[in-house]
Write a structure and sequence with these properties.
This protein is an all-alpha fold. The protein contains 14 helices and no strands. Helix 2 runs antiparallel to helix 11 and helix 11 runs antiparallel to helix 12. The protein is globular and about 60 Å long. The two termini are about 30 Å apart. The N terminus and C terminus are likely disordered. It comes from Paenirhodobacter populi. One of its GO terms (cellular component) is cell envelope.
């Protein structure tokens, strides 16, 4: 994959002191967001050619795979204007997304014809969860077919806009903030160590999200499992989301520790990834059985173990402080 000349210049100017930061940008964030833009456009083009759900299944999965590889980059442009939430609002325990979507369809709200206005509707009614309700719902949503088509296209178009905004930020302004950490005028990152810590926080927080939310919510307890609370259950990709998320976190870890050996962290995370890819119900419905619950709980414990190993092995290499709450973000 070729990168713009301005990005190469930016990374060169960053110097050796922030080489690991440059690696995250060049080898993880940039290719990840570029792939997300490409997959989002393919989904949008498919919807504009024919918005029938059957033809959108494959491009939907490809686009969500691309997003899951970078979904953990909850920093800077991802947090700006709620972009990450507008792409994947989950968990949604009050089902506000479902209610808002139903309201749009019932009223045949013309907001679907105005891309700028559409960005101002509730984030719960945008992104992949909203598309999932239109493409995979069984039974399909009731409403005028023409309006359902317009809503689908509004959602895919909005997804492309958000993907492009993220991609552009990681080429330009936000990339300069990270690689220019400690330089005069940079009030966001006062040192390269501070920028590294922000990126390391994303790694740890991503593992917490996978263990405590993507697995913890549907796991519940062995006496009261809650498989119906799994992410992306209607599209049968609950387990797939988890596996792709872990793979993306591994990419982030290797980019952030480029030039260092992290054998214990790599081995621990690889064990979790292997377990995540093992046989199991795609929608985590097998959590309702004792055997399925135990398998998933073992995976949760492996992810938590990987997090503990990473917290022990990597911070001394990066010169970052352990005294922070990973869920705080930037």
């Amino acid at each position: 994959m070729r990168f713009p000349a301005c990005l190469a210049t930016l990374l060169f100017a960053a110097g050796a002191a922030s080489a690991d930061i440059g690696q995250v940008i060049a080898n993880h964030a940039r290719p990840g967001y570029a792939a997300f833009v490409e997959a989002g456009r393919a989904l949008d083009e498919a919807a504009r050619a024919d918005c029938a759900p059957a033809g959108l299944v494959a491009p939907f999965h490809a686009a969500q795979d691309a997003w899951m590889r970078v979904a953990h980059l909850r920093i800077g442009p991802s947090e700006d204007r709620g972009r990450a939430l507008s792409i994947a609002f989950w968990p949604d325990p009050k089902e506000s997304g479902r209610r808002t979507t139903a309201g749009l369809i019932a009223a045949e709200n013309p907001v679907v014809h105005d891309p700028a206005a559409f960005t101002r509707i509730s984030v719960a009614a945008r992104g992949f969860p909203a598309l999932e309700r239109l493409i995979f719902a069984d039974p399909p949503p009731s409403g005028d077919p023409a309006y359902l088509c317009d809503l689908t296209r509004a959602l895919t178009g909005d997804l492309v806009l958000q993907a492009q905004a993220l991609d552009e930020a990681w080429i330009g302004d936000f990339a300069r903030l990270l690689t220019g950490a400690g330089q005069p005028g940079n009030q966001t990152y006062l040192s390269a160590a501070e920028a590294r810590q922000a990126l390391f926080t994303l790694l740890v927080a991503g593992l917490e999200m996978d263990a405590d939310q993507r697995l913890g919510r549907p796991l519940g307890t062995i006496d009261r499992p809650r498989p119906e609370q799994a992410e992306a259950r209607a599209s049968h990709r609950s387990r797939r989301n988890l596996a792709v998320s872990l793979a993306g976190l591994r990419e982030l870890m290797l980019a952030l520790t480029a030039g260092h050996r992290v054998p214990h962290s790599s081995a621990a995370l690889d064990r979790a990834i292997a377990l995540a890819g093992a046989a199991g119900a795609p929608d985590m419905s097998d959590l309702a059985t004792p055997e399925g619950w135990q398998r998933a709980d073992t995976l949760r414990r492996e992810i938590k173990a990987a997090r503990a190993v990473i917290m022990a092995e990597i911070p001394p290499l990066l010169g970052v402080d352990l005294g922070f709450n990973a869920t705080d973000g930037d």
